[in-house]
């Protein structure tokens, strides 16, 4: 495809700005719709008259529909956008960046979502890319583990309900963390199971318990059984967190936070804190997946976005070379700059 695109750049260079403009309009309507023309024009930093003309054309092509609430993309538009995304990857050289980053991190695969997670709609697109990957990975009787957080909630939201795979079970990969119920691993596991027409189990325990309390809970038959099932999942989808962000979510004391800073912790996963080389510098009591389990799971997908997570992503990738990574463009470009 790259050869064809290079030829087209020479013969019809004027087509690419138009293609990119319409791609961005479709992508933003898909992510933000229903949305009005004025808000879309502001979002795209484009004249409202230009947006109106382009949207009218997309409507005539059956890619966008307009009503009193605003504009939204049609099913035909979604299908075209999916194909167009692959074309834009090649035009922007994103596929080359994926290959370069895959070699640098020495992992199985890298999938890059164009944009920056700080922009509206990009988290949804990260969720959509990960959901597509999950749907292509599951088979009959697949056991899935998933962690909590905003990114994982976006993944569950973007799963379709088209799968015909039977006996899928989803487990929370760790205990509850923080106060937002909608981004707890339990909540996300239940939603994902519903989207996949599968089953789920819940882990009724916090991820911030003392050693003594955790020891008592692990004697509970139901909790013990769920933990054993979690450790035997076939597919794990997990978010990659910055060490300082996760320390604040766990409401660590000032002394522990200072210790993490002194040890140059950059990343957190499964209750462990790592420096940029992937060395464990601090460990907490954590329910669910442990580091030794992480290495044994058949397939793992790490998901993250944002330039500020580059060091954290790099540290986690050093732990397992057979993992798949889904990130945004901002994180990808920053990762390439790291030593």
TrEMBL record:
Domain Sugar-binding: 92-337
Residue ranges constituting the CggR N-terminal DNA binding domain according to the UniProt record: 18-88
Keyword terms of this UniProt record: DNA-binding, Transcription, Transcription regulation
Pfam families associated with the record: CggR_N, Sugar-bind
GO molecular function: carbohydrate binding; DNA binding
Keyword Transcription among UniProt keywords: yes
Top-rank taxon, per record: Bacteria
Family under the similarity heading: Belongs to the SorC transcriptional regulatory family.
Cited PANTHER family: CENTRAL GLYCOLYTIC GENES REGULATOR, TRANSCRIPTIONAL REGULATOR-RELATED
Protein name: Transcriptional regulator, DeoR family
Organism: Alkaliphilus oremlandii (strain OhILAs)
